[in-house]
Design goal:
The protein has 252 residues and is of the alpha+beta class. It has one domain (2-199). Helices cover 21% and strands 44% of the residues. The chain has six helices and 14 strands. The chain has a 14-stranded antiparallel sheet with strand order 1-2-3-4-5-6-7-8-10-9-11-12-13-14, covered by helices on one side. A hairpin with a 2-residue loop joins β5 and β6. The longest helix has 16 residues, at 236-251.
Length: 252
Amino acid sequence: MASLFALGQNISSPDYIETKIESGSTFKKYKNGKLDSIVVAMYAVNYGNALIFAKLDNEIRITNADDENSVIKIELKNNKQVRTFFYKNKPAIVVESIDFDINQLPKNTTVTRSLSNNVIQNMSIKTNYEVFGDDNPDKTFKLFYGLNIRTDLDNLDAIFENIGAFFSEEDALLKIFYGSYAEKFAPKILTYLKTNDSGIITDGITLDYQNKNAKETNPYNIYKNGKIIKSGKASLADFQKTYQDYIIKLQE
């Protein structure tokens, strides 16, 4: 791919080790025994693209060869992961791992909790979608939200290895880019809350996931204008439907 040479990536070099996956190949380069660079080449009829992952001193930088305006950066802040989507050099989306305490939430943000591979992920999300204007960098969007990195990892080497392991899976690209297939592997939502400038919940829905047996029920609350408007109990699977219904009503 000519675009990869322009980006300084020569995947035909013997330094890269290739793993063939569905709809593409993953190329890894090691330096001093550590994973140093990842290139994921994507192939389709009349289409070719690549995702480039580079580990720098203080960040992991992710670019899409077909999208010159977008950059994803992963950094550490107080040993917590911070993932930022930059568009035309401006931060558009910032997702930060947090310690979840429903009585002490971050201010003016969206707080989510989800369950993936038996690990609960706690995130705060701040967005500035105006940065995109009328543009829609769809594939980079999907990569940003679909790249499921273990949030309990607190050093860049381990995070980069986790990314490399994910893209060595046969169906890695399908899990990110292919609609209904990707949905099957999406994290299970536990919490979606919005807070005000005091960190108080204004709106949202949350499952108090204390009983870790997914088939057992746990209490949930739905908030509107700072008040609980509905409470109930649901299993993890049933709560996914409750959450989807809640989101649909928000969009009406």
